[in-house]
Design brief:
It is a single chain. With about 350 residues, the chain is α/β, with parallel strands linked by helices. The chain has two domains: about 10-260, Rossmann fold (3-Layer(aba) Sandwich), CATH 3.40.50.1440; about 280-349, no CATH class. It is built from 14 helices and seven strands. A seven-stranded mixed β-sheet has the order 1-2-3-4-7-5-6, sandwiched between helices. Helix 10 links the parallel strand 5 (about 205-210) and strand 6 (about 235-245). Helix 3 crosses helix 4, helix 4 (about 55-70) packs parallel to helix 5 and helix 9 packs parallel to helix 10.
């Protein structure tokens, strides 16, 4: 461990007072120390409790330093309890949105869900240990894929392929023994109550690690993969590995990391402007000329239609004295190809 005390002149050794701006100033004061400590790292995890001052304000800056150094950066953060109030929740969500812009992928764990998995008799200390355990599982679930050799091996580049999909991520870990142990472990992994209330459907990338004792069978691996393939959809890029771990006894442990949710689409091309269409016969019939007022007509492309009489194209109107003795005459659509002077003679006759 290499703890770094940040912002001593800003906080005088105290906390950030639930002010994210103070947390940001604190990390900026010692960003050189942080940058030096992160040098030459390939994979960096950033964990924080969002909603207060230090985690909310400092985590995005640490992620920016990590990302600038070219490290694969994973954020794993918690969202506060609803009972902590709307200002703290607002701070948390603002910090999470800012952090999301700086990491390769982000896993968010809602503390509120502790109430769903902990009984009424669960002590406060045990409840928070449960939340810390989920953070640890998320970190270990990724690091074990890289560091523990397996029968079907995964390495850092496999992890990078999935993590670099960007956006939000969900992580689940399931363990089960007995009959249907493979399917039940997989179901637990993709339905973790402490994670977002979403399925893995729509993920762009999925990492799967299947660990079991030496009795792990090919059929069981197929059961896990079939279930997760069905849940994630055909468009997800799925990479899996298997590890033989006799310490699991008769259990199978399945770790699933699904990424690529809610990816920003800032670079999408704007749709081309719709070209103005030339008027159809129906358009002409629906828009009769108004005699006695200036009219400007065109062919839809900026030019002037030569089928319209010159005095109308020039914006002139029929003198008032002529209007009193003349009924408005509108040429039929089929006559527009006849020269104007001939149409006048035909109308006169």
């Amino acid at each position: 461990d290499f703890p770094i005390c940040i912002g001593s002149s800003v906080t005088r050794g105290l906390g950030a007072g639930a002010d994210p701006e103070v947390g940001r100033q604190a990390i900026e004061e010692d960003c050189d120390k942080v940058s030096k400590q992160l040098q030459d790292s390939d994979l960096i995890f950033i964990t924080a409790g969002m909603g207060g001052g230090t985690g909310t304000g400092a985590a995005p800056t640490v992620a920016e330093i990590s990302h600038d150094q070219g490290a694969l950066t994973v954020g794993i953060v918690t969202e506060p309890f609803v009972m902590e109030g709307s200002p703290r929740m607002k701070n948390a969500r603002s910090g999470i949105a800012e952090l999301k812009d700086q990491v390769d992928t982000l896993i968010t764990i809602k503390n509120q869900r502790l109430l769903e998995v902990c009984g009424r008799d669960t002590t406060l200390q045990d409840a928070f240990l449960k939340a810390d355990e989920v953070l640890m599982q998320a970190t270990r679930g990724i690091s074990d894929l890289i560091t523990i050799p397996g029968m079907v091996n995964l390495d850092f580049n496999d992890v990078r392929t999935v993590i670099s999909k960007g956006g939000d991520a969900i992580m689940g870990l399931g363990e089960h023994s007995g009959e249907e142990r493979a399917v039940e472990a997989a179901r637990k992994a993709i339905n973790s109550p402490l994670l977002e209330d979403v399925s893995i459907a729509g993920a762009k990338g999925v990492l799967i690690n299947i660990a079991g004792d030496s009795n792990l069978t090919l059929y069981e691996i197929n059961e896990v993969m079939s279930l997760i393939n069905e849940e994630s959809g055909s468009d997800a890029e799925i990479i899996f590995g298997t590890v033989i771990d006799d310490s699991l006894a008769e259990n199978i442990r399945v770790t699933v990391i699904a990424t690529g949710f809610n990816v920003h689409k800032n670079n999408e091309a704007e749709p081309p402007a719709r070209e103005q269409e030339e008027p159809t016969q129906q358009d002409v019939e629906a828009d009769p000329l108004t005699i006695g007022s200036p009219v400007l007509l065109g062919n839809g492309n900026g030019g002037t239609s030569l089928d319209v009489p010159t005095y109308l194209r020039n914006g002139h109107s029929i003198p008032q004295e002529h209007q009193e003795h003349q009924e408005p005459v509108r040429p039929a659509v089929g006559d527009l190809d006849i020269p104007t002077f001939l149409r006048r003679k035909m109308n006169a006759s």
